[in-house]
Design brief:
Blueprint: H1 3-24, H2 30-38, H3 41-48, H4 52-78, H5 88-116, H6 118-123, H7 125-146, H8 152-155, H9 163-186, H10 190-193
């Protein structure tokens, strides 16, 4: 064997342990993570304790309904409905505190519901669409809060809101209606979710 052949063999044998060591410690894939969540103590408690799932789901529905109801009031005011005689800042100030309180409750109960059947939820089209729509609703709100609201002094009362404010209100209504629609569609797969409310 030539000295070049021996050197090549030595380099090859030196590299092999590194490659095999990577195979010994594979990263946890998404499915394994979801299975781990499903078998957690919290998920087991919700799934096995009588009434726990129903209570969590009911609280999530109430929170979602409150979020939409309060946002609806603000969005209609952005569209100049039913009147512009009341300050937008007053309407928003009185309602959005309830919006954030309800959203906080939804943000707690939502993940709790997810833990009960994460593999199903993760692969469910309606669930993914709902999450995407929530993200878009958040972006729409951020644009309004950091840009559009800066001109509120000019249309706070007695004047029709500008096109940018009306657009924000229209998009908000459309996105939140879509969130609720897709969220409700998730529940129709009763066999996968074992959801007592799915057929209602």
């Amino acid at each position: 064997m030539s000295k070049y052949g021996a050197l090549s063999l030595l380099c090859t044998s030196w590299k092999r342990p590194r490659q095999s060591s990577r195979r010994q410690y594979p990263l946890m894939d998404v499915k394994e993570l979801l299975v781990a969540v499903a078998s957690s103590g919290l998920a087991t408690w919700i799934n096995t304790t009588r009434g726990a799932f129903a209570v969590v789901e009911a609280l999530h529905f109430i929170a979602t309904a409150t979020v939409f109801g309060t946002i609806l009031i603000v969005d209609l005011r952005l569209l100049g409905l039913p009147t512009t005689a009341r300050r937008f800042t007053a309407v928003a100030g009185e309602t959005l505190r309830w919006t954030w309180a309800a959203f906080s409750l939804a943000a707690i109960t939502g993940p709790l519901l997810f833990t009960t059947n994460p593999v199903f939820y993760f692969g469910n089209f309606e669930f993914r669409a709902k999450m995407l729509l929530l993200l878009l609703a958040g972006i729409n709100m951020a644009v309004f809060e950091f840009h559009t609201i800066k001109t509120v002094a000019f249309w706070d009362i007695g004047k029709s809101p500008p096109a940018s404010a009306k657009l924000a209100g229209t998009l908000s209504l459309a996105l939140w209606l879509s969130v609720i629609t897709f969220g409700r569609l998730i529940g129709f797969d009763a066999s996968a979710m074992q959801d007592p409310f799915a057929t209602l």
